[in-house]
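Usage example:
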Amino acid sequence: MEKGSKEKLKIGIYELTGCAGDALLILDCEQELIDMFKAADIQSFLMAKSDNIDGELDVALVEGSVSTEMEKEELLDIRKRANTVVAIGICACFGGIQAAFLDKKDWEKNFKKVYGDNKMTHTKPLQSKPIDAYIKVDYYLPGCPIGKEQFLSTFNRILRGHPPELYRFPVCVECKWNENDCLLNKGIPCLGPITRAGCGSICINHNLPCVGCWGPVEEANLTSEFHLLREKGFDYDFIKKKMANFSGTGMADFLGELKGEKK
Amino acid sequence: MKKISVDHLARVEGNGGISATIDGKIVTDVKFSIYEGPRLVERLTVGKTPEEDVNIVPRICAICSVSHKYAVLKAMENALSVKVSPKVSLFRELMHLGEMIESHSLHLYYLALPDYVGFPNAIAMAAKFDLEVKIALEMKEFGNHIMKTASGRYIHGENPVIGGFGKFPSIEELIWIKSRAVQFMPFVLKTTSLFCELDYPDCPEDDTVFACCNPDQNKYGFAGDEIILSTGDTINKEDYKSLANEFVVSHSYAKHSRYKGEPYSVGALARVNNLGERLKWEAGKMYKKYFNPRWKKNPLFNNAAQALEILYVFERIPKIIDKMLKLPDPAIVLSKKKEGKGTGIVEAPRGLLIHSYEISGGLVSYTDIITPTAQNAEDIERYCYIAAQKLLDKGKESKIRDRMDLVVRAYDPCISCSAHMAEIKKAPLDDWRTKLDGIIKKGSPIFVGIGRGNRSDDRAGLELALELRKQGVTDVWLESEIIEVEVPWKNKPHRPLVFIDALDFKEKPGKTILLPLHYIFSNTVLSHKLLPFISSDMGYERLKNSFVLGIQPESIEEGMKISEPVRQALEKVLEQIMN
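Running the assembly step on the lines above writes:
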């Protein structure tokens, strides 16, 4: 990216396997959308336009997990064409809900249950993985879906050639800003302490526990959360499942370690 | 089709496309494909608690996330015998109407309208339709605002839970939503007229069956406990598989049969066609003004139906809010039940959505989710085929791509798909060879030779059948040997069926094509001879696994010999089969 250049940055927005919620959230920036299209040269955005070009890019925003051979190839191609790659949403960052089968055999067994022996002719299925399983990712913008505020701030900073500034603390911090009562103190299983902030502690604001949908925060004290929930009377399987629901491959190692804790 | 019908597990909203293969003057293949990777959502919910399941399954699709939430809650509450209070039902309906506004306005203004006024996207369209695009954005934002109020955020909000809501909105918030809905009415009325008056092309047009939820008390709406069909039949939600199963297994394409056997369409057009007479207020007036019989045949009118629904929604919102204001905020209803079975059906913006679960030992043990786009896939292919063949007949091949795009987009099959390009493929030379090989590999086919023995090239099918028999191929039949009560393909649903016939498709004599049998129905030139063979007991599965190998005759005059080009073609086909 040349500084001071008047050329608009070339940006591509891509969707792999997921719910398309992150791309949809970008469309949901109703007030800012037209300005966004003016400020940058949006080269490719399947959800919004049909005249898409797959050429050299300054920035590629990639949503979704890699779940087929074709997507893997597409992703490798995007990496080649783009200076900067940003993973948007938990599917791209951690693999998302569909990466909950950590064990390959388990995944294969379930794949067979759903699709039987039908051969998929168009492209080979792959066990869902986050995009950094295949390419180098420059920045991560988590969320399920991503938050409007963080997205717009990231988008603006990238347009100006700056790295994005993301929250590196858990939901609990935002929850305190919002002056909520701690649900864990009431014995409700809340994943706020280990989940990345940015949603504005939305569930706790609604008197509901955090389900962990933004994925694990860096440096989360997973062991401590696990023991806290044990103390509150929840069993091993329940906790493990709860922690795994949205973390994709993001806490695979920890969940593996947990096996020793069962007895 | 089987491939697509299971793809609802993968989310169908993402990568997809439609392709048509053209061989001379015949469309030999139309495929609506979904390239989204497998997510196995129905499997990864197994073993979760009902509460966790409610968090996870809406992630199937962002644009319909509220409908998924609504359907899973209804299913779970049925399974766990939870009865929610009227205020909860009203608030859920409001949340759902928010999604209708958001999704319909996104589709109509961002995705559909640019096609009709000639722009590649809505942002470019803004140069000419500045005011419309801006107000439409406001309207979409209003839909989002309602969803945020009810569910917590625009997409994947967690406020709706089994037994109620985490939090109810303030009185001020409700009054604001009501007044905003009233303020929008002039633009909403304009939107309805705009989309009802668009000049929709008359190709493709054909009858189909429409299915949607049947709301209680003979009202219009987006939820209910039974499914209503345009045939007049109704199906209880617990029996939803009789709709789906009939469709997959025993349905027939036969034009004379317009009952359950046909593929069906779901969505706004299905709702307006089935329930439009129930519309009241301004929406009722607009319905009476614009509705005409073409709505029942032409999928492009889905755009008009969506616009009519936006009007209904804006008139319904103030009434819901007036009721909500009179009721206290109820606490969440809890259930101690650990076992149960339950189904929930709602209308997603793009059609009937079914969630069904079994719970044992307090955990989900079975999940079945049927999405609207999976149900529409078959009709999308069919209408695209009709459009492609009709345009080809009129010599307008260059228009096929755009028209198929228009048809797919009209179904609003979730947004990513609808911005994809349609693709036209030229069939490679001797395309029939590869296809025939594929059929033979699938399972040894049953061959049926068709024709009349005394009419030169018309006897091509019979000649080939006799030659195949001579060479020792089993299960080869002649037209005259087929008796309706004991057809040779009976009880053999997995073996492909290939009719061999001289087909006049206006090509060079001897040219050979292979195409799915059901394409014959929409092609009047080809259909007259084969139709009687397609007996009504030829189920859907059977039809999908049946083909026609056609050879262009030179002459079908009485008493003549088989012409040289056809003779050569027969030899090639024979060689291919014997290899």
